[in-house]
């Protein structure tokens, strides 16, 4: 009988506050207090996390159940109702921020998404990627509109811009970003401004879908782009401390000249490059995120301030005897006069991302600015910057303060050790500087302790105490209930690399870099309470004996029987000793690099070792023979642990994988994929029902035992299928665009490679399966049409001719062939329809046109019919034109389609008129206009024509 195994599946993930994506501020919920600081959206690796800034708690968590891709970019519409997330595989998801449900799924890029931007109406989304392409998506029709190809490197920023007359100039004909009340919401987003690591700034006309202007922004890469709220000014950043300002002239009245004009350069205070530039939506400020621990805030001066500053400079230069030619260079148009540095914020760790907070009309405060900053140490901070009543020269830097921080539910540094309590309800995680205790079921943080650089940890019997081994050689003893450090013991002269507690709970053994293994006993001593005469019992560790070895001890383990102790040394060997006499028993050698972890099975018969040489070795403790050597991972294996009461074991590696093994048959049972970086440590529950792992990505993952059995043969077949599917889709991705161009342009394909616009498409397994379903439906439907046509023809001569045997699927559903094919098309997602139709061979295209001819006579969904028809004609244009049989078919389609579209147009017009009437009626009965009497009389007097009397009668 084929043996089956019980596998493990991911149950929960916690410990991550903000991963590598940007963050975005959300206004507080309507039910929240007016004192709330709002919410922040961050990426928790593959999850979307919503945090309450004031309380530091997690409000909600959204997860894509289909994949394990890391989120790389986040954007939201202006009202915050929809949130877009871009992933490392090039896919995009649109979420409803209120319910947390997934609305739309797009797939078009071949590499990670780097930036996302909604237009003002929230109906279009632009995405930039590492593949140097920009794609504009339609959220209403749920499809990609077009792909813009002109950049030669990663896209760093994209912004929709509006086209509106007379919004480009201020009162004196110059750009003025201090006029923040200019309304650009009414104008259509006709333009798109983009920057890339190729150093270019490009302006795209979205009506013609072409790049109309290209400017060289910086010497090297262009890392960020910020546009003022009134869309008259843009700031770009490069590799150095220089920022460049650009004037934007986007109105229809610009006939000649450039629409993007360089104004000049600004010098930042930080010498590192700026990674993000963001303007405040209501105030004349913009913030700059540097590639260090700083955020700079700059202010735009008013026209009066600029005029006074220029006059002051000219006056002082004249007093110093500067000639008039140099004085003429000091003008009000100088960008260094118009922008000055306002504040300089230093953070405790490197800045990963930031966003302005309190940016809605209900939360905006005129007397201060608010910033949320995501740091590289897995925390988010909220800063408040006070604004002065007036701005004077040489005034002190404004005060800023950190009001809130989200840092409790995560470690600042990598988790290096993990331990599960004896009742499997708590887990302790230790890192450099902190020790945290978590509730496994609720994933809430119960305790946080300050500690040294932790390398190993373990619960002591009773789960009331925790012991931690540190890098400086100390053993720290913590009391869980009182959240206190009981004792710090200088145990070793070097790092304490490993520790283990005996099965009976009476002995603690530690191994250190000072080449010794030490044994400790737990003693209860009575200590006098300071300031009183009372005494209280306290746990103490007493060193009973030590084992001196020849090299640094990297790992130690006591056998469950209490008879042996195994220690791995820096010389690549593992030595086994008797616990009672410390006499040498076995020397296990064979690894090419040091053994990083080891464990002994429940029956003390097997010892498993993992090494930096990527191998796992299984040894017998009776004779010290190597049972099996397995090349287990693609990188160093950091940890290996036996499962309870079995010879199955787990291994964790730097290759991001955790593997489940059968120690008797030496078979790999399962691969646990979930972590996005090196897995440092794992721990198995005492009841064997779950596994906990911690990695460099700061995440703690709980893997629960599943009820679904695993058969190794099926597992191997599934892995081969996944490998084949990945190879198939990658090959189709490479040929997709070229095939489309060759079909569309033929011999002009070479010229079309330089085109700036292309079709949006990406072949995935889902689109291939959808295409196969369409082909299958067309084959069934085409045969049924021929069958029914022959039956009707035969019925003319034989009225009693029996109905032929139709396809079982059609007969079961009692549906016509055209309705069956149409139902298959309707089930395909809108974003995947064109990619599914793209795989149809030409003989199936003729069958599809045959069905379209039937559909247009009695249309159910005219939009879907038109989309299918137009795409097939665009792709197979040359073959269709050369086919004489299809000419009468297309003429019939054209005639009926025009009639149906005309009816659809009239129906839409009627509905629009009805909606306008309903709106006018509502406004008439529910809205009142307030008119100022004085202003009304003044306006009336101005417009009234006065008679001039020359004589009096």
UniProtKB/TrEMBL annotation:
UniProt subcellular location: Nucleus, Nucleolus
Biological process terms from the Gene Ontology for this record are:
maturation of SSU-rRNA
Tell me the SUPFAM superfamilies matching this sequence: WD40 repeat-like
Q: Which GO terms describe its molecular function?
A: snoRNA binding
One cellular component (GO) term of this entry: Pwp2p-containing subcomplex of 90S preribosome
Name the SMART domains on file. WD40
Give the InterPro entries listed for this entry: SSU_processome_Utp12, TBC1_cilium_biogenesis, WD40/YVTN_repeat-like_dom_sf, WD40_PAC1, WD40_repeat_CS, WD40_repeat_dom_sf, WD40_rpt
The UniProt record lists the Small-subunit processome Utp12 domain at 819-920
- Tell me any Pfam family this protein matches: Beta-prop_WDR3_2nd
Q: Where are the WD repeats?
A: 71-105, 106-147, 192-214, 408-448, 489-523, 588-629, 630-662, 672-704
Q: Report which superkingdom the organism of origin falls in.
A: Eukaryota
The UniProt entry lists the main location of this chain as: nucleus
Q: Which UniProt keywords apply?
A: Nucleus, Repeat, WD repeat
Region (Disordered) residue ranges read: 734-759
Q: Which family does it belong to?
A: Belongs to the WD repeat WDR3/UTP12 family.
Q: Which PANTHER family does UniProt cross-reference here?
A: WD REPEAT CONTAINING PROTEIN 3 WDR3 (PTHR19853), WD REPEAT-CONTAINING PROTEIN 3 (PTHR19853:SF0)
The name this protein goes by in its record: WD40 repeat-like protein
The species this protein belongs to is: Nadsonia fulvescens var. elongata DSM 6958
């Amino acid at each position: 009988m084929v043996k089956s195994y019980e596998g493990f599946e991911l149950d929960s993930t916690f410990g991550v506050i903000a991963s590598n994506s940007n963050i975005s501020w959300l206004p507080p919920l309507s039910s929240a207090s007016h004192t709330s600081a709002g919410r922040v959206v961050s990426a928790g690796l593959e999850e979307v996390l919503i945090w309450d800034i004031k309380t530091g708690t997690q409000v909600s968590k959204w997860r894509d159940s289909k994949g394990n891709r890391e989120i790389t970019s986040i954007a939201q519409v202006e009202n915050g109702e929809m949130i877009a997330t871009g992933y490392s595989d090039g896919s995009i998801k649109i979420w409803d921020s209120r319910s947390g449900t997934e609305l739309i799924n797009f797939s078009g890029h071949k590499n990670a998404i780097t930036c996302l931007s909604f237009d003002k109406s929230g109906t279009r989304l632009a995405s930039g990627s590492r593949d140097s392409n920009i794609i504009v998506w339609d959220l209403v029709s749920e499809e990609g509109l077009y792909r813009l190809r002109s950049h030669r490197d990663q896209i760093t920023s994209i912004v929709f811009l509006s086209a509106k007359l007379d919004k480009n100039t201020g009162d004196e004909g110059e750009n003025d970003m201090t006029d923040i009340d200019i309304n650009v919401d009414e104008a259509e987003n006709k333009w798109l401004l983009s920057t890339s690591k190729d150093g270019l700034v490009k302006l795209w006309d979205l009506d013609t879908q072409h790049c109309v202007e290209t400017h060289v922004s910086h010497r090297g890469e262009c890392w960020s782009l910020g546009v003022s709220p009134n869309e008259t000014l843009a700031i770009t950043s490069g590799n150095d401390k220089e920022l460049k300002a650009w004037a934007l002239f986007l109105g229809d009245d610009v006939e000649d000249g450039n629409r993007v004009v360089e104004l000049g350069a600004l010098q930042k205070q930080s010498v590192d490059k700026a990674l993000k530039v963001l303007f405040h939506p209501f105030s004349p400020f913009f913030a700059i995120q540097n590639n260090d621990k700083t955020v700079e805030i700059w202010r735009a001066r008013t026209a009066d301030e600029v005029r006074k500053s220029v006059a002051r400079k000219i006056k002082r230069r004249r007093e110093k005897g500067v000639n008039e030619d140099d004085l003429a260079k000091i003008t009000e148009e100088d960008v260094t006069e118009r922008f000055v540095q306002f504040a300089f914020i230093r953070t405790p760790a490197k800045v990963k991302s930031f966003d302005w907070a309190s940016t809605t009309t209900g939360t905006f405060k005129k007397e201060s600015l608010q910033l949320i900053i995501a740091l590289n140490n897995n925390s988010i901070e909220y800063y408040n910057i006070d604004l002065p009543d007036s701005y004077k020269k040489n005034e002190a830097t404004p005060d800023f303060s950190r009001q809130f921080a989200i840092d409790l539910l995560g470690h600042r540094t990598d988790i290096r050790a993990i331990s599960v309590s004896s009742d499997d309800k708590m887990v302790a995680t230790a890192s450099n500087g902190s020790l945290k205790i978590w509730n496994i079921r609720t994933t809430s943080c119960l305790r946080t302790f300050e500690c040294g650089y932790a390398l190993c940890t373990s619960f002591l019997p009773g789960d009331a105490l925790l012991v931690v081994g540190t890098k400086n050689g100390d053993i720290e003893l913590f009391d869980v209930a009182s959240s206190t450090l009981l004792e710090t013991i200088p145990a070793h002269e070097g790092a304490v690399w490993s520790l283990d507690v005996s099965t009976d709970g009476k002995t603690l053994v530690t191994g250190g870099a000072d080449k010794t293994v030490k044994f400790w006993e737990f003693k209860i001593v009575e200590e006098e309470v300071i300031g009183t005469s009372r005494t209280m019992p306290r746990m103490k560790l007493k060193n009973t004996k030590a084992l001196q070895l020849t090299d640094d001890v990297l790992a130690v383990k006591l056998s469950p029987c209490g008879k042996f102790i195994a220690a791995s040394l820096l010389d690549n060997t593992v030595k086994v000793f008797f616990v009672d006499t410390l006499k040498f028993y076995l020397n296990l050698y064979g690894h090419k690099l040091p053994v990083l972890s080891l464990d002994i099975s429940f029956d003390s018969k097997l010892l498993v070792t993992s090494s930096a040489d990527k191998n796992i070795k299984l040894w017998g403790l009776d004779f010290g023979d190597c049972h099996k050597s397995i090349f287990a991972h693609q990188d160093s294996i950091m940890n290996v642990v036996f499962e309870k009461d079995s010879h199955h074991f787990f291994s964790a590696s730097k290759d991001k994988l955790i593997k489940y093994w059968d120690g008797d048959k030496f078979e790999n049972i399962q691969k646990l994929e979930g972590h996005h970086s090196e897995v440092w440590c794992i721990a198995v529950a005492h009841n064997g029902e779950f596994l906990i792992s911690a990695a460099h990505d700061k995440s703690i993952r709980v893997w629960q035992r599943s009820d679904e059995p695993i058969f190794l043969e099926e597992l191997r077949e599934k892995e081969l299928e996944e490998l084949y599917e990945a190879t198939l889709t990658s090959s189709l991705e490479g040929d997709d665009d070229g095939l489309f161009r060759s079909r569309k342009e033929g011999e002009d394909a070479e010229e079309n490679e330089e085109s700036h616009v292309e079709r949006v498409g990406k072949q995935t397994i889902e689109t291939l399966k959808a295409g196969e379903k369409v082909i299958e439906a067309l084959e069934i439907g085409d045969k049924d049409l021929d069958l029914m046509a022959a039956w009707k023809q035969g019925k003319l001569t034989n009225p009693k001719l029996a109905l032929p045997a139709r396809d079982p699927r059609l007969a079961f559903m009692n549906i016509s062939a055209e309705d069956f094919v149409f139902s298959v098309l309707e089930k395909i997602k809108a974003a995947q329809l064109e990619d599914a139709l793209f795989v149809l061979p030409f003989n199936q295209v003729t069958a599809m046109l045959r069905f379209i001819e039937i559909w247009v006579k009695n249309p159910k969904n005219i939009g879907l019919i038109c989309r299918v028809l137009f795409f097939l004609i665009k792709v197979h244009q040359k073959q269709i034109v050369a086919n004489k049989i299809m000419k009468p078919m297309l003429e019939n389609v054209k005639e009926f389609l025009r009639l149906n579209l005309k009816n659809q147009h009239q129906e839409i017009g009627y509905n629009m008129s009805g909606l306008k009437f309903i709106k006018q009626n509502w406004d008439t009965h529910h809205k009142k206009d307030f008119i100022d009497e004085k202003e009304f009389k003044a306006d009336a007097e101005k417009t009234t024509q006065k008679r001039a009397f020359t004589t009096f009668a």
